[in-house]
């Protein structure tokens, strides 16, 4: 039980609230990008987008929710105080 509490604390803020930024979406993000360009969204574009969002916004969150397919590079640039959650499928 103590181990679970430790993990929850890593993704919670100082008021014990999980305030997570969720950018684990892939399909919806691809559709949004495709709407504004002629060619389909590439894996590189999606990863780069997630990396930028992570670097800019995780200073305001207690954690970030990412997908393993495109989000691993975003984990490398998240705020040091933000916890990390990976989508499991």
What does this structure look like?
Strand 2 (63-66), helix 4 (72-76) and strand 3 form a beta-alpha-beta unit. The mean pLDDT is 93. This protein starts with a helix and ends with a strand. Helices cover 43% and strands 12% of the residues. The protein has a three-stranded parallel beta sheet with strand order 1-2-3. By secondary structure, it is of the alpha/beta class. The chain has one domain (2-86). Keywords: Lyase. InterPro entries: Aldolase_TIM (IPR013785), DeoC/FbaB/LacD_aldolase (IPR002915), LacD_aldolase (IPR050552). This is Tagatose-bisphosphate aldolase. It holds the Pfam family DeoC. One of its GO terms (biological process) is 6-sulfoquinovose(1-) catabolic process.
SSE layout and pairings?
Elements: H1 2-10, E1 20-22, H2 27-35, H3 43-57, E2 63-66, H4 72-76, E3 83-86
Parallel strand pairs: 1-2, 2-3
């Amino acid at each position: 039980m103590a181990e679970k509490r430790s993990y929850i604390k890593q993704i919670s803020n100082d008021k014990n609230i999980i305030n997570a930024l969720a950018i684990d979406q892939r399909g919806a993000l691809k559709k949004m990008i495709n709407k504004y360009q002629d060619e389909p969204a590439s894996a590189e574009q999606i990863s780069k987008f997630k990396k930028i969002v992570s670097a800019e916004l995780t200073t305001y969150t207690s954690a970030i929710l990412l997908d393993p397919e495109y989000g691993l590079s975003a984990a490398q640039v998240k705020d040091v105080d933000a916890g990390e959650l990976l989508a499991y499928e």
